[in-house]
Amino acid sequence: MNLNRAGLKKSDAVTQVDIATQSNADRMMVSKVLRTLEEKGFLTRQEHETDTRAKIVRLTTTGEKILQKAIIEVENADLDFFDILGTQLPSFNSAILQLIQKNME
Fold first, then answer.
1. Paired residues of 59 in beta bridges
2. Contact in structure between 30 and 24 (CB atoms under 8 Å)
3. Torsion 72-73-74-75 (CA) sign
4. Hey, which residues does 45 pair with through a beta bridge?
């Protein structure tokens, strides 16, 4: 990732490598998935201005609409799934956080 001295990205451009790194996924798999999404009209991939090996990924208008719908669906599924916990949700979240922290040591 192209970072400045403060550790921030120099530009807002997202590359295929950024996506693979952030998602901890194989670069070839990410490339294939992005190619499929591009064929469906959800995103575009363009050569990077300075690094010809890199491709910049941008959502199309259609891709933005589909993403917004997907986010709502995921949030609703999440709410439905955890609804059974009711008032116990905060203690459940706390217990899960403790498990994660303990297993990161």
1. 43
2. no
3. positive
4. 57
Does 11 or 82 have the greater pLDDT score? 82
Please answer whether residues 1 and 9 qualify as being in contact, where contact means their C-beta atoms are separated by less than 8 angstroms.
yes
How far apart are the C-alpha atoms of 53 and 90, rounded to whole Å?
46
DSSP string, the chain: --B-TTS-BSSS-EEHHHHHHHHT--HHHHHHHHHHHHHTTSEEEEE-SS-TT-EEEEE-HHHHHHHHHHHHHHHHHHHHHHGGGGGGHHHHHHHHHHHHHHHH-
Q: Structure tokens of 45?
A: 């991939």
Q: Flag whether pLDDT at 96 surpasses 60.
A: yes
Q: Is 4 exposed, middle or buried (0-12, 13-18, 19+ CB in 10 A)?
A: exposed
**In which residue are the tokens 């807002």 written?**
12
Per residue in 63-82, pLDDT (tens digit) is 999 999 999 999 999 999 99
As a whole number of angstroms, the distance between CA 64 and CA 76 comes to 18
The span from the first CA to the last CA of the chain, in angstroms, equals 27
